Fold this protein.
Amino acid sequence: MATTILKKPSTFYEVFTRKPDADKINTHYCPGCGHGKLHKLIAEAIEDLGIQDRVIIINPVGCSVFLYYYFDTGHIQVAHGRAPAVATGIKRVHPHSIVISYQGDGDLAAIGGNEILHAANRGEHITVFFVNNAIYGMTGGQMAPTTLPGMKTTTTPRGRDIHNEGYPLKMAELIATLEAPVYVERVALTDAKNMAKARKAVRKAIQIQVEGKGFAFVEALSACPTGWGMNPPDAERWINEVMTKYFPLGVFKDISDKVEPVKFERKILTPEDIKKAIGIDGGEITQVKKYQRNTVAEKYKNPKIKIAGFGGQGILLLGLVLTQAGMLEEYHVSWLPSYGPEMRGGTANCHVNISETEIASPLVSIPTVLIVMNRPSLEKFERTVKPGGIIFYDNSLIDIEPSRKDVEVVAVPATKIADDLGSTKVANMVMIGAYIGYTGILTKESVFDALDMMVKRKEFNELNRRAVEAGMKFVM
Amino acid sequence: MQVTLQKAFVKIDKEQCKGCTLCIETCPVDVLKISDRFNSRGYHYTEYVGDGCTGCGVCFYACPEPGAITVYKRGAIVDEEVLSEA
C-alpha cells in the first residue's frame, strides 16, 4: 500500500526545542541546502524501517553538527573526523543499535580520512552518509579534498591547481576497493530522478545494517548554494552537469546478497554485570577511609611542586605518590609528567599541585617547591623557584649548591641514604620522606597507603616505607 | 469528520519555506509558483496555484525543510479541515 500523504517524517522532532534560537520550526540550513534533503531521506527511511528507538546518529563537525536538533534519535557529537571511530565503539558495545555516521567532506575526506578508511576496512557494521559539496561549507567555502580541479574557493582564488593542491579524492571509489565494505554508492541530491535513486540508496544502506550485513557507505553530492555563490536550482544543475563528470554516480560495490548476515542480540546489562565490569564484584563497596590532615605551616600550604631528575630515578613515581596521598587527604591534586622518549637516562620532570582549592592549571612554571635529583635539573630549574620557596636537592649526587639566597634550601643525601638501606632505587622515597617530614604537607599514613596503591611490585613495599621514614628522620 | 480526497493537492507552510524554489524547479506539472508576498522571515514563499497537482511527491523530496511541504495524494483520508485549507 503506497503512502498517500507525504509529510514531515516522525523521526524529526515536531518542534526543534533543542535549537537555542527563537525559530524552532525551521532548520538552521541555508535555502536550498542539500543537508535538508538528505536529512529527510534518512528520517523517512528510519520511520519506514521502524527502528527509530534503536538509531544512534554520530554528529560530525561541519554544518550538520546540529543533527541532534532535528532527529528524535540517539546522538553523540564527536570531534572533527572521528565519527567512524566513535561509531565503531558504539556499535561494538551496543550491537543491537543502528549506528549512522553522518559526515561532510572536510570531516570525512580530510581530517577524518584515516578514520573512515580503517572503519571501512574493518567492515564495521555501521552506515555512513558522506555529504560531498566540494568545499568546507560551514567555515566559508575553503578548498576541501573534494574540490574540483580549477574550482575557485576562498583558499584557491585562482582555482584548484592540481600541481599544487593535488586531485580531488574520490572517496566512494577508494572505499569500494577495500575488501570489507558491503555496499558503496554515490548519489546526487538534485532532480527528481536522482532523488529517487538517492532515496533508494539511503534505505538500502540502513537496511544492510539492520540485517547485520556490514559496512555501507553512501556518498551524496550535495548543493551548497551559499558557498558556491549560486541560486539553488543552478547549484543543483551544476552538480548534474559539472560535478558528476568528476564524481560519477552509481553503485561502486554491492555484495549485500552474498555476505553472511551477523545476528546481533540486544545486550542488556544487569546491575551485577556493571559491578563486575567496574571491579566491585559481589556488590560490596568498602568503607572509604578518612585521612587526618597535618596542620601545615602557612608557607608550605598549597605547594606547586616541580620534581626533576634523570629518567629512571623514579621522578614520575615520586610525583604520583605525592599526588595520590594528597588525594587521599582530600586535597585537590594534579600531576603532569614531562619526559623524553627514553625509558632510562634522559631527563624527566613532573609538575604536582596539592591544593585546598580547585586547580586552574596543572602546569607548574614557577614552583614553590623544587625537588631535584641531578645537577642538570638544579641548574635548569633553580632560577624558576618562587622567592620564599623551597629547594630539596640530593647532595649525594649534586656536587654544587643552590646559589639562591631568597629561598629555603634543604640538602638531602637521598641516594646515599637509599644505598645504605640496600638500594639506590629508593632515593625518590627518601626525598618524599624529607619533603613531607620537613613541611608536614602530607602524613606518613597517607603516603604509605598511596605507595601501596601506586607501586605494583609489592616486594618493594617494606623497603620503600623504610626509605620514606629515613628521609623523614633526616630532616626532623 | 474524515474525507477521502478525490484529487491530490500540495500544502505549503509558508513560514517553513525559505524560498529556494527547488520545488518549483522540479514540479513536472508546473503548479507551484513563488509568491509576491514574503513570510515573517523575509522569504518569498512557494504557493500552490490551486489546481493540477498530481500528487507525484517530487516537490516533497526536493524540499530541504522537514515540514514545509506536505503532499496529499488522491485517495488519502484526511480531516475535513485539511481539505478546507487546500
